[in-house]
Amino acid sequence: MTQMLKKKASELDHDFRYEISEKVGAKSLLKCIQCGVCSSGCTVTEYVDLQPHRVVASCLLGLKEEVLTSNAIWTCSLCHRCTERCPKNVDYSFILALLRNMAVKEGKIPKEYSTTVVTLYHNGFVVPYTGGLKDNIDRRRNRMGLPQIVPPKLEEIQFIIEETGLGGLAKEEEDEK
Ligand code: SF4
Ligand code: SF4
Questions:
Q1: Which ligand is nearest to the Cα of residue 70, counting in written order?
Q2: What pTM does this model have?
Q3: Distance 149 CA to ligand 2 centre (A)
Q4: Whether the Cβ atoms of residue 86 and residue 52 lie closer than 8 Å to each other
Q5: What is 13-105's CATH number, 3.30.830.10, 1.10.1060.10, 3.30.870.10, 1.10.10.10?
């Protein structure tokens, strides 16, 4: 489902396009001709509030808030079809990944993603491998003749999450409790 975006010129972030395009690999954003090919082939187009060509247009127009709070940047499956088909070689799927990073930096990360990071931080797995759940998983793996799961080194995972700047999410979650 798409939405109408209306804003006064004075409310636009005119530097947003450059904030994106100055990042390594994102200069292609400025070459978009709004042909819509990316949206016509997008595998998740019916589930996003802004289709790919509209995300690009919104970036170029300075609709930063709308882009960074759009479900489009999180619903994308990163299949890269838009990038492969773009006649102007706009690397949309890569730009989308950058937009995700920008959204996270501004604290605009959907709850389901931040919860996954927090679970990973505390457990080393995106699904907790503890208690009854662990027993169930182990039992099924045994039945199928699969080897035991070797738990990862939690301190290494926590180090990586902290280095990427996402460690604060785990702290925020603890503060909320
Ligand atoms: S296919 Fe490329 S040029 Fe066409 S709208 Fe999408 S990003 Fe822009
Ligand atoms: S990479 Fe994302 S935006 Fe591009 S076609 Fe695939 S799902 Fe759609």
A1: 2
A2: 0.80
A3: 33
A4: no
A5: 1.10.1060.10
